[in-house]
Specification:
Layout (H helix, E strand, L loop, with lengths): L2 H10 L19 E8 L10 E7 L5 E6 L4 H15 L6 E3 L9 H9 L3 E3 L8 H21 L8 H10 L18 H9 L17 E4 L19 E7 L5 E5 L10 E2 L3 E3 L8 E8 L2 E6 L8 E4 H11 L6 H17 L1
């Protein structure tokens, strides 16, 4: 198998998206809230095109506010309404993704007012509890659309939320979200901590200095034929023996990549210095300007034609017939001697 085929196989090997992750440690009710926005622009209801969804990670109680847009002002206003009029309490911590709808001066001022610690993770599973709630809510909304025969949803949000919080038993806590109180929160914490943990501590799969690709997380709507792994290659710089083990990386410019990675998100590469050429952009004297596959235009480089020929001859030596390979070698020597 030639080098190009190996690199292509590395890019397209299957990538796992379901695997054990580190647990969220909860101290009680309203210790951690997760927030997210849901796009409804294909089914607008009047001026409203988005949803702000918030969930308490212990009780699983959720709150929703319609949004006209995802501006910082609009999101801050909706979050304030949830804190003051729906939940009537503020959390100690708020976890969101890194979107500008959450990281802006308007939301920052609101969080400072209530002394809420705001943080994000860099995993593809950014705020898994609220994302799971979003799927439940959208499933219920689409059933409602089919029954109604229209896409009116703003006026029906309170009914859906009452059903979720007061009528539906959540599997992980064994009760309805509204039934979780300060009187039984310790029982819920104990119940969650005693749930089976499939994570087994083991020796690290990668070591410092290994070169790896990063998994491109795929949703159900992502084209299956697209590459599953990054074209860029990274170096492992740190291995932390957490449960499960996490790895920290550095890019080709020597800059640290934000966040840690699980072993299922990484794949070791066989040829760390081999990249695929997408196309030749320009030729000047004995150099060519190359566009590298999967890299932005600012990564285009000028390469010496002779170096490229030597590289090709070296890596094709075991894939072509000896007579063809010998012909190429002699042709190259002829060009060098009689140029």
């Amino acid at each position: 198998m030639n080098v190009k085929q190996i690199v292509v196989d590395e890019l397209h090997r299957p990538a796992r998206k379901n695997y054990p992750r580190r647990r969220v440690l909860l101290k009680g009710l309203h210790d951690i809230w997760q927030a997210d926005t849901v796009i409804m622009s294909n089914f607008p209801d009047g001026k409203f095109k988005y949803l702000l969804t918030v969930i308490d990670c212990l009780s699983k109680k959720a709150w929703v506010e319609p949004l006209k847009n995802k501006s910082g002002i609009e999101v801050a206003k909706a979050l304030q309404n949830i804190i003051e009029n729906q939940a009537k309490i503020s959390p100690r911590n708020l976890q969101t993704d890194l979107g500008t709808e959450f990281y802006n001066p308007h939301v920052n001022r609101l969080l400072e007012k209530y002394k809420i610690n705001h943080y994000s993770t860099y995993s593809v599973m950014k705020a898994s509890m609220v994302e799971r709630f979003n799927r439940t809510l959208k499933t219920w909304m689409w059933k409602m659309f089919n029954i109604q025969g229209n896409y009116k949803w703003v006026e029906n949000l309170p009914k859906l939320m009452y059903k979720y919080n007061n009528e539906s038993i959540h599997r992980s806590i064994g009760m309805k979200p509204s039934e979780v109180t300060e009187n039984n929160e310790s029982d819920i914490i104990k119940k969650l901590s005693q749930q089976p943990n499939s994570i087994v501590r083991k020796t690290p799969k990668f070591k410092v200095g290994d070169h790896v690709r990063i998994s491109k997380y795929k949703t159900v709507f992502t084209k299956g034929y697209l590459p599953s792994w990054s074209t860029e290659i990274f170096k492992v710089t740190q291995v932390r023996k957490t449960v499960p083990i996490t790895y920290f990386l550095q890019d080709s410019n020597g800059e640290n990549v934000l966040g840690g990675f699980y072993e299922q998100e990484l794949a070791k590469v066989k040829f760390p210095n081999v990249y695929l050429v997408e196309k030749i952009l320009k030729k000047k004297n004995n150099k060519v300007l190359l566009k590298w596959l999967g890299f932005p235009n600012n990564k285009n480089t000028w390469e010496n034609c002779k170096n490229l020929v030597i590289f090709l001859l070296y890596y094709l030596r075991n894939t072509w017939e000896p007579i063809v390979y010998t012909y190429l070698i002699l042709s190259y020597i002829f060009l060098i001697l009689f140029k």
